[in-house]
Amino acid sequence: MSLFITFEGVEGSGKTTQIERLKRYLTRRGIPCKVTREPGGSSIGEKIRKILLNPDHRGMVPLSELLLYEAARAQHVKELVGPLLQRGAVVLCDRFTDASLAYQGYGRQLDRGLIRRLNRLASQRVRPDITFLLDCPSDLGLKRALRRNRLLKNEKEGRFEREKIQFHHRVRRGYLAIAKENPRRVKVIDTRVGEEKVFEKIRKIVDELL
């Protein structure tokens, strides 16, 4: 049975940690899964990622940003996600189409109708079976992300962390609006309850799907 699970949230919401925990859990159960991410997931996508997240590229206009994300997504779906799902695999993805709507639609305030059309085109109508929105206050998530980048010496992937807090507030509001519009697919989990309780909620939902 194929299963496409996506993880969304503001910077520093703990997506990577929960994806890795879910991968280990599924592997122990004998369910192989593939972890991937956006932007990225393919050779071309990873090159686009370096352009998008590099803080030196402060002059990038919002429309260019959006189109680069969609280009990376088209390659990702065609090269990796689509073939895996066709083979009946479980795919865990760090961000997908909801991120474009939250970041470029609500955060950058681009036309959301345009973004939805581009999302459908780039994703070739591939849709997540379930999406976990790991929610936390924007300022808390941003502090976590900045601390993580310092520890990892991740200087070349901090362009969004340098945005003003108002941008991050808009992104969070966007994510919560998306969840309200898609309550069956998008499950909101408050990450302030702690890593263990967050994973327990994720595990229960995934067990029901399986």
Beta fraction: 5-15%
CATH homologous superfamily designation? P-loop containing nucleotide triphosphate hydrolases
How would you write the strand order of the largest sheet?
2-3-1-4-5
Radius of gyration: 16 Å
Order of helices and strands: EHEHHEHHEHHEH
Category by helix and strand content: alpha/beta
The second-level CATH architecture is 3-Layer(aba) Sandwich
Give the overall shape. globular
Report on this model:
This protein is of the alpha/beta class and 210 residues long. The chain has eight helices and five strands, in the order E-H-E-H-H-E-H-H-E-H-H-E-H. A five-stranded parallel sheet has the order 2-3-1-4-5, with helices on both faces. Helix 1 crosses helix 8 (195-209).
What is this structure's SSE topology?
Layout: E1 3-8, H1 15-28, E2 33-37, H2 43-53, H3 62-86, E3 90-94, H4 97-107, H5 112-123, E4 130-135, H6 138-152, H7 165-181, E5 186-190, H8 195-209
Parallel strand pairs: 1-3, 1-4, 2-3, 4-5
Helix pairs in contact: 1-8, 2-3, 3-5, 4-5, 4-7
Index terms:
210 residues; alpha/beta; Rossmann fold; five-stranded parallel beta sheet; 8 helices; 57% helix; globular
Question: What's the short version?
Answer:
By secondary structure, the chain is an alpha/beta fold. It is 57% helix and 13% strand.
